Amino acid sequence: MASIVKLGPGKQPPRAIDFFDHRSKRQRLRIGKVTHDVAHEFKRRVEKLVNAKRLNQSLDPETVHWLTGLCLEIKIKIAQFDLCELPEAEPAVPTLAVLLDDYLEWKRYELKPSSIKRLEHTFEAMKQFFKGRTLIDQITTTKAKDWRTEMLKAGLSEASIRTNARNAKSVFRDAVERKHIAENPFFALASSSIAAERSRFVTEAETDKILASCPDDNWKCLVGLARFAGLRVPSESHAVTWQDIDWNLKRLRVFAPKTSTTRVVPIFPKLAKLLDEAARKVTDHSQPIVALSGHNRHRQMTKIIDAAGLEPWPDLFQTLRRSCETQMAMTVPQHAVSAWIGHSELVSARHYLQVTDELFQRITGNTEGTTHGLRAAESAAESAAVKPGTESQDGESDSAGERAAEDEATKKPGHCRVFPMVASNCEVVRAGIEPATHGFSVHCSTN
C-alpha cells in the first residue's frame, strides 16, 4: 500500500507518495504542492501502476488515459521507478525541476536542515528564472550569466549571489557526473565565499551599557555569552546549561551543532560575574543558562541597544561574537582563540578578526581622529597594555605566580610562555635543540 507524506507545513504543502515498487523496495515519488484530494487520487493511481507491474497485467483504460495526460515532468519521475515508459520522441534529459527535486531528495540524508533550506531557496530562484519545465541541456553559460545579472538587479548582496551560484554549480556538477549534460553552464560564475563587512567593533564600554539596559538575567547572560565567550546565537547560547560550567576552573563546555563538536571556553571575569549573579537565583541547574524564546529575538535586542543609547548594527549577535574574537586575538595566541571560538585560524582571519583603531594607536601613539563607527577597542587596549600587577578594565589581573613566571621567562628564554607580549622577548639559546656533535665548539646555528 502507498501512503501520502507531507514535506512541509501549511494547508497545501509539498507532498510525496511513499510506496513499495514491484521489487518490494521502498520508493518516494515527489508530486509537489497539491491538495490532499489530488494527492489521494495520485496515490491510488500509483498503486494500480505498481500492481500491474508486479502481476504483469495490462493497465485499465482509465489509468492509461490518466497516465497519457500527465505532464512530461511527472512522467519522467514515474518512469524512473520503471512504472511506465516514455515515448521515444520524448528526451531522456531531465527537466530542471526534476533535476533539482531529485538532488534535494538525495541530499536530505547527508546535509543538515539549515543547509537544505539554503538549497531550497536557491532552487526556487532557479525555477522562477529558468522555468522548471526547461530541459537542463538548454541552460547555457550565457543564461547562467543572465541569472546573475538578474539577481544583481533584484538587489541581492554579493554574498547571497555567490551562495546561489555555488549551489547551482553543485547540482549541475552532479548532472555532469551522471552524464545528463557534457559541461556545467554555471562553471564561470564566481562562487567563493567573501568576508562580511566587519567595521563594527563593540567595545566593553558599549557592552556595559547594553547589559545595563537588559530587562533580566536571561538577556544579560545571552549578551555576555556572545560578547565575552564568543558563542553562536542561538545554536550554542541556548543549549549550554548550568551543569556545563566548571566553577573551580572557570571553564564552560560548549557543544556546537554547526560542527557537531564540543569545545571548552574560558570564563573571563566579566562573564563570570554575570553567570554567578544569575546562578544564585536558579534552583534547577540542569536547565539552560539562557531560557529565552526564539521569537522576536532580534527585535528585542534592537530595543535593548536603542535603550543603551547606541545605534543598532547589522548582524546583531554575530557582531558581538566577532568583537569577542578580535579582543581575544589582541592578547592570546591565535591558535587558542580559534579553539575557543570554534573554527580554524583561516576562518578567523578571513571572516572575524578586525583591525581596530586601538592597534593604530598602539603603534603611532596618536589618540586623535577616531570615529564612532571605527572607534578603538578602548577596553581591549587597556587590557593589552596593562602592566604586571595592575588590573585591566574588564577586571582581569595577573596573579603573583603568573607575574613571577613571566619575569623568569624573560630572563630564561628557553622557558617562555606562548603569549605574544612575552614570546617577543624570546631568543634561541645557543645550545640549540639537537644533541652536541663531538669535535665542534658550536652545538647549533643560532641564525
Describe this structure in words.
This protein is mainly α and about 450 residues long. It folds into four domains: about 5-80, no CATH class; about 95-175, DNA polymerase, domain 1, CATH 1.10.150; about 205-360, Intergrase catalytic core (hpI Integrase, Chain A), CATH 1.10.443.10; about 400-445, no CATH class. The chain has 18 helices and six strands. A three-stranded antiparallel sheet has the order 1-2-3, covered by helices on one side. Strands 4-5-6 form a three-stranded antiparallel sheet. Strand 1 (about 5) and strand 2 form a beta hairpin. Helix 9 packs antiparallel against helix 10 (about 270-280), helix 9 crosses helix 12 (about 315-330) and helix 12 packs antiparallel against helix 13. The chain is elongated, with a radius of gyration of 30 Å. The chain starts with a strand and ends in a 24-residue tail after the last helix. Residues about 370-445 have low confidence and may be disordered.
